[in-house]
Amino acid sequence: MNEKLREIIASHKNIVFFGGAGVSTASGIPDFRSANGIYSQGGVIPPEEILSHTFFMERTAEFYKFYREKMLYPSAKPNDCHFALARLESLGRLKAVVTQNIDDLHQKAGSRTVYELHGSVCRNRCMRCGKKYGLDYILQTEGVPRCEKCGGIIKPDVVLYEESLDPDCIRDSCRAIAEAEVLIIGGTSLTVYPAASFINYFSGEKLVLINKTPTQADRIADLVLHEGIAEAMRLEDGEIS
Ligand code: ZN
């Protein structure tokens, strides 16, 4: 781990990590914003439109075609950033992970307190009766997945465009950030809502920014690392106790 980052972590016990797409791209999951859209009669439909509530309701089969091809990476593995955060939590230093990612990799690495602002591909629900389904059901079915019990359409518990974030998740995330001594923001350019606004809740001692390219918050950070999140966060055995 970067020496200055290690010093900050080793001298604090209330750390919160806020992560963006870069945390997942380090595990080989592409940022969906860079994906090609799907072709239709009117031309190419951009991902932002396909991943909207309106599109899901009106063109569910096309939504699921894109979703299964571009949004689901069941064989992706956690990287050194995910594992370091899980370790820091078990050591009692990290209080929470707040993430914009929906891939469940923090939980796979062993993290327990994870606030998923944009939901998770692992949770799916029948829109008619509310029966819950895991990711396996979406992977095993074809076309529009239907409820075994009532035949209703199953919808991923992923926040689509036009939908609002879960208020409980926002409250818990903001509280964790507001109470933190150290906030580490990683793998985000801080241009997408709500990342840019969440930083305003932080009033702790050390703000750390880790991103390959500069962000607008670099000037207010105590430590800025322009490198990959997995390399920057890699924690060797015994490095922090
Ligand atoms: Zn149902």
What does the model show?
- With 241 residues, this protein is of the alpha/beta class.
- The protein has a domain at 1-29 and 73-118 and 165-241: Rossmann fold (3-Layer(aba) Sandwich), CATH 3.40.50.
- Helices cover 32% and strands 20% of the residues.
- It has helices at 3-10, 21-25, 47-50, 53-58, 60-70, 80-90, 105-109, 135-140, 167-179, 195-198, 229-233; strands at 15-19, 38-40, 43-45, 94-99, 114-116, 119-126, 132-133, 154-158, 182-186, 206-210, 223-225.
- A six-stranded parallel β-sheet has the order 5-4-1-9-10-11, sandwiched between helices. It has a three-stranded antiparallel β-sheet with strand order 7-6-8. A two-stranded antiparallel ribbon has the order 2-3.
- Helix 10 links the parallel strand 9 (182-186) and strand 10.
- It is elongated, with a radius of gyration of 19 Å.
- The two termini are 13 Å apart.
- The mean pLDDT is 93.
- The chain binds zinc ion (ZN).
- The site of zinc ion has 8 residues, from loops.
- Zinc ion (ZN) binds next to loops.
Helices and strands in order, then pairings?
Elements: H1 3-10, E1 15-19, H2 21-25, E2 38-40, E3 43-45, H3 47-50, H4 53-58, H5 60-70, H6 80-90, E4 94-99, H7 105-109, E5 114-116, E6 119-126, E7 132-133, H8 135-140, E8 154-158, H9 167-179, E9 182-186, H10 195-198, E10 206-210, E11 223-225, H11 229-233
Parallel strand pairs: 1-4, 1-9, 4-5, 9-10, 10-11
Antiparallel strand pairs: 2-3, 6-7, 6-8
This protein binds zinc ion.
Zinc ion binds next to loops.
